[in-house]
Amino acid sequence: MTESPLRESKLPQIKPPSLQTATSSRVIAAGNHLPNQPRSATVTRQAEIQMSSSDTTSDKATAAFIRRTLCSHDVLLGNGEKGHNTPRPIEEVLPPLTSSNEVDLQLYGIIAVIIKEFVQTWYSKITPDHVFVNEVLQIIAHCTRALEQRLRKVDLEALLLDEIPELVEAHLSAFRIAKQQVSNRHSLVVDFRVVYHTLRPHPALSPVPNESVPSSIVEQRENESAWRQLLVQGVLAVLLPTEDLENACLRSLVAEIFAEMILGNGISGKACEGWLLWEGITRIAEVLQTDRDKEKGTRSYDADSEQPLSRLERHGLLSPPTDDRSGPSEPPLAHSGRHQSAPMTIAGLFWAAVQYVFLAGTAMCAAIAAVATSSSLPPRSVTGASGQSPVEAGHQSQFPQAEPSVVRRPLAFKRPIVSMKLWGCASKLVELDARMPWLSGFISILRWGALLGPGRVGDTDGVLDRFLSQTMQMRVLNPAILPTVLRTLRATLFPNNTLAPPRQPPSDEEAKLIKRRCAATLLGLLPTGVATAFFATVSQNEQLQQVEEILDCLDDAYLNKHLIFAIIELIVLRLVPELGERGVQELMDERLG
């Protein structure tokens, strides 16, 4: 860990000031030749804010912000070879965080905001030097490089497709059992949180906070704070070098930043709120809907404006159109759908059959292409000396073994993607067993046939397994999308590289509107025929209510903490497995002697 990993790429070069001046002059000149239009001060101000926010997220602006915040003047200036007026590249001034310059740029942008807002506000009043800040950066860089090396050894497919969905499925089961238990008239337990916490207890969330007992709220907050400190201190005890671990002042400051600001204020204080989770789901659904529209190709102006607007209008989220031909008691889509389906002619049936044949042909071509290219895809596992089949090894990995050495020994086979918990979690979320039991059984038969049927196409390293693994690697686990994700995260949390003003929690009515918009966006991803068949109703209001009932599992922030804390612990244990074998004090004593 003493050597820095090799760099894969370099930061984009910054243009000289002359080019920047020429570029800005051309922009101003082009703006002066625009036709005279009446402008309001509000529109101009909004445009300036949008331009400034977009400029702060660019690579050039981010690099300049990092230099001003994290680099001292004498270190930033070039040596005798480059001249006194040429700034040194960031990768030569700051220690590398990862093996990619693009990722380091975005990570240092986030770190610069944190250092500026939470360290320099009081440290600059004591001394103008950067020694303390440099020490903190060295500690963070050492931790990130160690985490990157450990991340390469983690099975990310199993983590994202099997282990985390298993926690979500357990959360859904406990939530629905608690809801059913409280609604039972013969039950003595009336507190919804008590039933859930009994089913899924967590030491950081004990006891259950009750407004009638103020001491329970204080005790729960103290336990949660202690859990955060233990978690961060345990990670630092494993990742930090011995000389940095012995520096109690630096260790306490880094632990305070991660435990209180990131875990406490960021995750526990905000990310566990139901309305914030609904907003996040809404943004993801909007991105998916935009990508789907792009894949369909260019559409006419009327079709492009009608489809998204009508989906929102019929859910009551936008004002109805001027030529409203449907009554207030009947959803517009249901009304228009019956009129469109009534005049079904032979020509309509013919074109519908042509469309289905075209879709079947496209699916067959995709299947043939997957089969043809599966042989060239890399295998997911390495064949070992074990005589177990991949399916048996995947199922037996869920149960503890009697011999401790067998637990630490890596499995010879990876679990097939078809048998992972993601599919069961999705079925549990939409209540497929209750809504369409025939479809749930049919999917189970297909999965069984893929795993144990002829050819075993869904078994480990099978045709379907390799295709799904390659799709996962290209679409989700692609390192090229990480800088974009970090840039978006920084622009959302820290607009204009500053702390965003504290957002007022929405009222109950505003939270209901956020939830309704989330349900409408999710419903907009489904075709009309699929939504009608799945929800067993033509009424859009009833469909919307059913989607809102599915989203009820994220309503309570206290229950969401159980799920999010369990996911955090799972990720930490996969990255730092030493914490699952020894306690924090044992690790500290071992490192410090």
Automatic annotation (TrEMBL):
- Keyword set, alphabetical order: Cytoplasm
* GO cellular component terms given for this protein: early endosome; late endosome
Polar residues bias (residue ranges) = 34-51, 376-400
Q: Where is the PXA domain?
A: 100-289
> What's the superkingdom here?
Eukaryota
Localization, per the record, is:
Cytoplasm
Q: Which GO terms describe its molecular function?
A: phosphatidylinositol binding
Q: Which residues form the signal peptide?
A: none
One Pfam family for this entry, by name?
PXA
Q: Where is this region: Disordered?
A: 1-56, 292-339, 376-402
Residue spans making up a coiled coil are: none
Keyword Transport included in the entry's annotation: no
Q: Which GO terms describe its biological process?
A: early endosome to late endosome transport
Instruction: Please give the InterPro entries that the UniProt record associates with this protein.
Output: Phox_assoc (IPR003114), SortingNexin/PXDomain-PKLike (IPR051837)
Task: Please give the PANTHER family that the UniProt record associates with this protein.
Answer: PX SERINE/THREONINE KINASE PXK, SORTING NEXIN-16
> Would you tell me the protein name for this molecule?
PXA domain-containing protein
Native source organism of the sequence: Lentithecium fluviatile CBS 122367
What lineage, starting at the top, does this entry show? Eukaryota, Fungi, Dikarya, Ascomycota, Pezizomycotina
